[in-house]
Amino acid sequence: MKKGKIVAMLLAGGQGTRLKELTKNLAKPAVPFGGKYRIIDFALSNAANSGIEDIGVLTQYKPFILNSHIGIGSAWDYDRNVGGLRILQPFMSEKGGRWYKGTANAIYENMNFIDELDPEYVLILSGDHIYKMNYIDLLEAHQQKDADVTLAVLTVPWEDTVRFGIINVDEDNKIVEFEEKPKKAKSNLASMGIYMFNWPTLREYLVKDNEDKNSDNDFGKNVLPLMLRDNKKMYTWEFKGYWKDVGTVKSYWEANMDLLNPDNTLNLYDRDWRIYTRTRNLPPQYIHKSSKVVNSMINEGCYIEGTVEKSVLFGDVIVEKGAVVKNSVVLSNSVIKRDAKVYNAVVMEGVIVESGKEIGMENGNKIYMVTNDKVVAE
Description:
The protein has helices at 40-49, 64-70, 103-108, 111-117, 135-144, 199-211, 219-229, 249-258, and strands at 6-11, 32-33, 37-38, 54-58, 84-88, 92-93, 96-97, 121-126, 129-131, 149-155, 165-169, 175-180, 189-198, 234-238, 243-245, 286-287, 292-294, 297-298, 303-304, 307-309, 312-313, 318-319, 324-326, 329-330, 335-336, 341-343, 345-347, 352-353, 358-359, 368-370, 375-377. The protein is an alpha/beta fold and 378 residues long. 20% of the residues lie in helices and 29% in strands. Residues 8-260 form the Nucleotidyl transferase domain. Pathway: Glycan biosynthesis; glycogen biosynthesis.
């Protein structure tokens, strides 16, 4: 296989309003996940592990924490003289300044960046998802079909098709129709928002889309359907691994709980495909002899005297003697005080759960979002 030069463009400006307090002060890709990571770490690590040397990260909504986390890309080996990582934010031009109007517009506004790198292929990624993927497998499928664009897709339960852009294909996996969140889908192949384009073709259609004053400047709604109408060679490549769009508080909680399932295919302990992140300089965790810790992830800096079962604890969390944390996600710098009980919850960063307080129900079905000001059932 002739690899060809690839530039990855990672869309990381999402607001993620359905995550509520989790995205109150930061962009969705910067939301903490899995005890020590942030959501964007998965796409960045996939790109690094796939050998992609050039990547642009397009940020927009409340980018300070996200930009600080990414830095110059050193955690993912992107602080290099040739190639590397660039953060691309909305900027002033001769027409003034504005936010990106849509996913396609975000790439259009940064065409000069891509032109300067002069790639053969452009890979469009989202910073919102939890998964591990070798993007070179997608490239190989793209080249084998001599495609103009190849979409990564996955099979979803039929009842979930109303939440996704659905792709209908022929027997050769050639795309014949798009359905945007259909009430009654014809297939259950859902777009992952991951696209491998030939750069000259993408460039042509970004310009066409920008000239259409009625366009939403979105890949799924506008650019891809336009290419289909023009009979471009459009194919799908089906992804078989773990993938999660953590779009709600409940799905965020579920994705963290998935990490505690020994049969989960998202293996964070795979040394051949590591998930990299910017780490904090914290002391080792301390598990007191009076504690009980079962099937949990306990990050650095934690001090545990109480009971922790089937939970994910981020750095610098304290669980005092007699306290119980079960089926919960506890973000950094939180304190669960003596004899407090926390069940089925997402505890925000820096929260103090006072002594004797009980949050949630051990065998309940609801998930609770916990801040210092309130507890909200989801």
